[in-house]
Amino acid sequence: MADIRSFEQPQEAGFGDFVQLLKPRVMSLVVFTAFVGLMVAPVHLHPVEAFTAILFIALGAGASGALNMWWDADIDLVMRRTKGRPVPAGLVAPGEALAIGLALSGISVVMLALATNMLAGALLAFTIFFYAVVYSMWLKRSTPQNIVIGGAAGAFPPMIGWVAATGSISTEAVLMFMLIFMWTPPHFWSLALFMNEDYSKAGVPMLTVTHGKKSTRTHILVYTILLVPVALATSFTSIGGPIYLATSLILNAEFLRGAYRIWKRDEVQAEADKYRVEKSVFKFSLLYLFLHFGALLAEMVLRPYGIGGW
User: Whole-model pTM?
Assistant: First the structure.
């Protein structure tokens, strides 16, 4: 845990600093996947209800980000990628980050439950707890499986969106969850390969630190292979169809190609070209997830016109 005495606040924080505390880039992915989960559900909410649901899911994601930044301020300070975050940079006091995280957690959970249903509120509460406590406080600093297990926190939003609309969990919701859950390890391990020095300095037991980069490259390939059937399975559910299937086949072929290229390389090659392949696969993995959920949305939008669906 961050020692609050280690972080002073030399200047007054601006509005943008508090926005950054909520991890807006991560929040944008949460909002999009939750929106898709809500929109493709068989029950359609009133637009005001739908907007309210997405708003409070986004606030819940922001609450998780603030609590994570409060807890991880000490290791964020020594990592090049994170040292500019509001708390380690001294722009937001640790106590403020904690208070904002707790307040937004309570507001988002209660309001989502009131606006939609209790199950959706309970799932959001569990997601915040899982990310802030199970992942940030326990797994991240204790096991190289941190990303594998902790990835569940980022996989819940489409399920929450689905439950907000339907009040129940279905095969479709589970498959959307599993898509993100299985995608998370190769996505983050690709990043860890070229950011390994940061994790090593911070004492975070990422797989690259504990088992080495060669083992990590093998894990990326194995998890990408396991991801493929999970991604394709959604094609044959009520929310899938030919648009999604075609999109998924192309994206998975490219992701597999990238994972294979990573697996083939040694550190001499990687360092010689400054981890060009690893960085490329990491960037593509973001597009991979976005386009999968975009294809589900396209299926839903075009189905009334006789396009998409089986």
Answer: 0.93
